[in-house]
Structure formats: structure tokens, C-alpha cells
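User: For a benchmark we're assembling, each entry needs the component sequences followed by a predicted structure for the full assembly. Here are entry 17's components. Please fill in the structure.
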Amino acid sequence: MTLSFPSRGVLPHFPSKHHNTETEKVTSMSTTSTRRLRRVVPAALAVAALLTGGLAACASNTGSGSGGGDSELSAAALDSALEAGGEITYWTWTPSAEAQVEAFQKAYPKVKVNLVDTGGAADNNLKLQNAITAGSGAPDVSQLEYQSLPQFVLGKSLVDLTSAGFGDLESKYSASTWGAVTTDDGIWGLPQDSGPMALFYNKTVFDQYGLTVPTTWDEYIAQGEKLHAADPTKFITNDQGADAGFGTSMIWQAGGRPFKIDGTNVTVNLQDEGSKKWADTWNELLATNSVGSIPGWSDEWFTALGDGTIASLPIGAWMPGVLEASAKAGAGNWRVAPMPTYDGKTAVTAENGGSSEVVLQQSKNKPLAAAFLRWLNSDQASIDVFLASGGFPATTADLESDKFLNYESEYFGGQKINEVLVDASKSVGTGWSYLPWQSYANSIYADTVGQSYLNKTDINTGLKAWQDKNIAYGKEQGYTVQ
Amino acid sequence: MTATPASVLPLARPNKPRKAKASFAGWGFVGPFMLVFALVFLAPVAYSIYLSMFRNQLIGGNAFVGFDNYVRAFNDPQFWDGLLRVASFLAVQVPIMLIIALVAALAIDSARMYASNVFRIVIFLPYAVPAVVAALMWGFMYSDRLGLAGNINDLIGSDVLAPLSPQWLLVSIGNIVTWEFAGYNMLIFYAALRTISTDLYEAAALDGANQFRIIRSIKLPALRPAIIISIIFSIIGSFQLFNEPNILRGIVPNLISTFYTPNMYAYNLSFTGQQFNYAATVAIIMGVVTAVIAYIVQLRGNRAGQR
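Assistant: Structure for entry 17:
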């Protein structure tokens, strides 16, 4: 088995794919806009844009879905559903899916799985939300990022899998990923992978400029200063202030728990101790001018990762696969180290990205859907396929297997990267939650926190603005928000 | 000829049923259009207005709120921010683009230009490039690290050229839009110029008028309807600004907010914020604003034309 760790499919925003889908969306808009210009009746035009928005909202949230345990589900029902066979649809953007589905259909020939590649997390969420709002068209099983899960749980769009005996599977998964799929007294899916953060750095650049691998953020800032003084075209790291996933993970690592959810009561406090700690540190780092602002996942970004312009990145454990695939020029130069910490003593990190699979309420064959999901994320046959295609698992057995730990990555100069990454997965801070409207919150991150980066002002101001907008949005949506 | 009352009466009678028949047949012809029009235009508009009267919450469901969404929009600084941005864009970009188009059309029409057909197609060609591709292409050129802007900066050894900086961003977008649509407007003007009877030029030449005099006294007055049409198209296009900023947002997410233009605002509200109702409100308001401004331009244009 050749391992090329970790997965590229599990990213919050997979590069080229994400880009494509973004473009697709816009193309449909563009045709209308060109047509528009030719029309003489002006009022017609502005309103044409509504068609898209309007129709999508057609069925106005039916708010259906029973929620809670589903009586038709039980471990036995799942088994007999596999025997009886049937047809289900599975939405995902992980590159492992095709091989996994193939293996599944070989094991259960009576079941037909219609695989739909949704291209990326953002597009998947969009399509899923629209199908749910429309009342039809959602798949039976879908991939869903951990951070988007609460949104769909609260929308009562997912099936609680507790009664199907999924509770027995808890011991298979790392605590943080299990926690992510079990909120609100239910089991809403099974973890597919995980992304504990680590510090990826370019050893060649570090050696060239005499930088040491930092263990604290203060050291990290000092290395940034040193690098920038020696060569202003090189950056210690790259952060545009537009990636909310990065910002929230950094707050998580700093011990901040800005979002608390209790049913429909939500607390947003982006000025808690941890959030402030990260913002203050990052303010200092930005002041050294050693942070690049290259758009993430762009060609430019990959070039910069390959040629040493970006000297290090604190990012999720799925990154090696991405580097190998898209920053080939950097082969042999990169290494992995544990995340720098604030006190330099206790190792602590956070999850960055990562996905689960869920069963949708709209599914017409929930037992079969749940059975497929159970096989997909807990059967060793499936996980082996996932690993072979470069995934970073959520299952502890695989995280601890010798084969996995001893894998020497050529790209990383023979380093046993999984030792570092698996270590990281054990020191993920606990008790983190995302907002029930996280994907919307992420979309306005650049409008608020990003402005602090742009104007070189205090990140805390940006965090406060982000907080205010989130509170306003939450209230509009009927939550009790503080 | 004066008709006697006797001859009027028999004529008047058969007139009545004939009138009714004619109007019925007319509807028959208009019917298919009306049906499609109602289906694809009136129904969506009505549905959007209906939508804009509601509020659908993640918690609490759907509720009728009357004009609350409109009140909210008028008090929404983000909406005004976008609206003012496209209005200032309109005030600067549209005149520049139309003047370029006008000069190009007059030059091609002057018959003094060598290979004018080539120029015509070359100037028009950018319009054939999909707006998304154009925005992507310009986005690469604008990049001051890897793109053309960066190369020019390297060449002259400075960093003055920063098309994707806060100060220059709107100008850069204006440049893309001008590049895309100058040729399209040029073609409208050129087509209008071709309809001018050559007799007029001949007469003007006999009267001793030079080219500039001909342009001022014959060509520009003849172009007036075409110019008004172009202005109206451009007003609509400006208020609908979406593709270019939305694509560039991928490169400079901090610079282009989710409410950079009203259309982007409506798009992000409905697709990432699930606020379809409020998005419908924003769209309806923008539709009305666009219609009103376009109507004023048309009215003024016609009136001035009649003078």
C-alpha cells in the first residue's frame, strides 16, 4: 500500500475545485447579465436576478424532519436493508469516494450508490441547503464539514443515528472528531477524517536564514522579524485575513471558546481571553511585515509554497497531500513540527477542517443510507481505501497503527510526519463549538476581521465587528444571542 | 364630400360588431406573448414582491412582516454603501466608455481609416469574451506580484502600479468594464451612423463643411437615439455590476466586501445567508431605482430631441 498522506479532499476549500465551482456559479449569472444589456425594459432586468434567489426559496422552509431518534432505524434494520438492497445517492468531494463506493458495491451487490462529486465544501453546502429549502433533491448521504454540522442539525435536516446503534462506534474515533458529530444529544454522522494543526515549515529556507523552529509564538514572531530583515521578499507565513477557518482554529488553539450553543441560546464572545490572546499575538506578527497576503489556494499560493516565498504555515494535518500534489517544487524542503504554543510548555493544538458524513431527513431509504454510512466510515475495508488514497483518518486504530506512524514521507525528506501529526491529534483542545450559522459567519469574516489586516489596525477591532454582525444575524434568525 | 344622415346610419351599424371582432383577434395574436411574459416576467416579479413581505428564520419559521424588510433596507448602511459605489461607478465609467465608443465609431465611419473592418472587429472582440473570463484575465494582469502590473513595477523599479489596492480597485474594475463594453457600444453607434443618408454628406460637402462640422451638425444629432439607448443599457449594466467584483474577490477578499455592489449583496444574502426575503427586497429596490433612473434619462433624452 502506498501512502501519500494526507488527503486533499477533506479541505475546507479545495483549491482548483473550489475555484471551478465558484466560476460556474458566476457563469450562470453572466449569461443573464449579457442578455440583460440588450433588453430595453429596464425594470425587467434588475428583477431577473430575483428569479434565481426567488425560485430557490420556493417551498419556503418546510421545517419538516422529525428530529430525534428515528424509529425505523436499528442495527438489525440496517443489516436487513443491506440484504434487501436498493438505491441511494451520496454527495461528496473527497477524492477517495469513487474507490470507496466501488468497494462497497462489490461487498453489497444489491445496493446501488449514485455518487455525485459536489466539487468542494462551499458548493456542497450551498446545494444541500437549497435542496433542503426546496423540500426535495437532497441526497441520502452527504459529506459535511464539522463546522457546518450544527447548521444542519439545528435546521432539523439530519437523521439522528443513535437508535441505529452508532453509539457503539464511539471508541473507534478520536475524541475531538466524535465530539464534533455528537452535539445536541444526538449522533448526526460519522467522522471521515480530521485535521489537527501542525506547523509546516520549509527547512531549506529556515537553514538558509539561520532560523530556528519555534516552539512558542513569541519565537515565531522573532523568526518572522529575522527573516523579513534578511530578505523582504520572503514571508514567515501567509494570511490574508480572509480565511475564517484559520482564524477560528487559531483562537481555538489559544484557548478561546468564543461560541457557546445551548439549543437556541447562542453566546458569541470574540473577546474572551483566548481570542484576545491570539489577536494580540497576531497583531505583533503582522507588524513585522513578514506575513504574506497571497490568496489561499491560488496558483500564486502554490508557487509561493514551492519556491520558499512562504516559509511556514500553521495548518491542518491534511496538508502534506496538498503540498505533494500542488507544490512539487518544494519536494524535500518541507518538514512538520508541532504547533508553537503560547507558554512553550503544554502541547496544544486545534482542528482545522475535516469532514463527516451524514444521513439526510429527505432520504427515502434511511436504513440503507445509514448502513452505507456505517460501512463507509467504520468498516476497515473502506478506511483502508481512504488511507490508500491519501486521507488523514479519524479512527484511532489507524492513527496508532505502526504502518501509519512509521511511514517516511519522501516529500518531507524522509521525515516520519505522521508521528508529529498523530501526536497533534492527541492534544487538540476540547470544548470547542462552531456557530449554527458558521458558513455565513465565515463568509463575512473578510468584511470584518479582514479589514483589520487591510488597514493594519488592531485585529481585536475586527473580531468585535465580526461578533456584532454575528449577533445581529443570529437575532434575525430567531436565536437568543448574547 | 358631405354625407347625408341617411348614409351615415347604415354605415355605423355594421361598424360596431366589426370593432369587437378586431379587438378579440388582436388578443389572439398577443396572447402567446402575454402568456410567456406573465410566466417569465410578471410571475417572478410578483413572487419576489410576495417574498419581500415575509421573513423566514432558522428558528421560528416564516412570518408575514409587511414592509419591514423595506424599512430595514433603507436603514441598512451596507445596502447604501453598495448603492453609492455603483452610482459613482456609473457617473465616472459610463461617460468615459461612451466617449471612447463614440470616437471609435466616428473614426471607423469616417472612411479615412485604413483597414477599418479590422479595427471594428478588434474593438468589438472583447465583448465576445465572457465577462467571467475577462475578469479572471484582468485579475492576473493586475496582480502586482506575478502579473503584468508586477512586471511593469519591476521594469521601472518602483511599486506605483497597484491596481488591486483600496484606492485603485474601483478604477481597475471600471477599466475591465470599459474594455468589455466599449466595442459593443461602438457597434451600436456605428450601426446608427450607417443609416444616415449619404445625400446629407454630399450636401454638406457642397456647402463647404469640414469633417468636424459634419460630425457636429449631422452625425451627432443623428446618433442621439443610439446614444440614449447606450446610456440606458450602461445604467442598467452599472447597477447590475456583479461578475467583475465577484471574480476579483477571489484574489483580494479583504478589498471587496460581500456587499460591494447591491447585486453581490443580494447574492450573498440569499445564498450564503439564507435570507431570501431580504435579498428579494434588495433586488426589488434596485429594480425600481434602475427603472426610475433609466426612465428619467429616456424622458429627458426624448424631450431634448424634440426641441
